[in-house]
Amino acid sequence: MNKGERKFYNVFTELQCFILANMSRGEVNGVTATHYNIIEYIYRNDKCTGKQVAKAFNISPPAISRQLKFLVENNLIEQKQSSLDRRIFNLSATDKGKFIIDNSENFRERVAKQVSKALTRDELDNLTSLLGKVIGEIVESHT
Amino acid sequence: MNKGERKFYNVFTELQCFILANMSRGEVNGVTATHYNIIEYIYRNDKCTGKQVAKAFNISPPAISRQLKFLVENNLIEQKQSSLDRRIFNLSATDKGKFIIDNSENFRERVAKQVSKALTRDELDNLTSLLGKVIGEIVESHT
DNA sequence: ATAATTAGTTAACTTTGTTAAATATTACCA
DNA sequence: TGGTAATATTTAACAAAGTTAACTAATTAT
Question: Above 70 in pLDDT, residue B12?
Answer without folding.
Answer: no
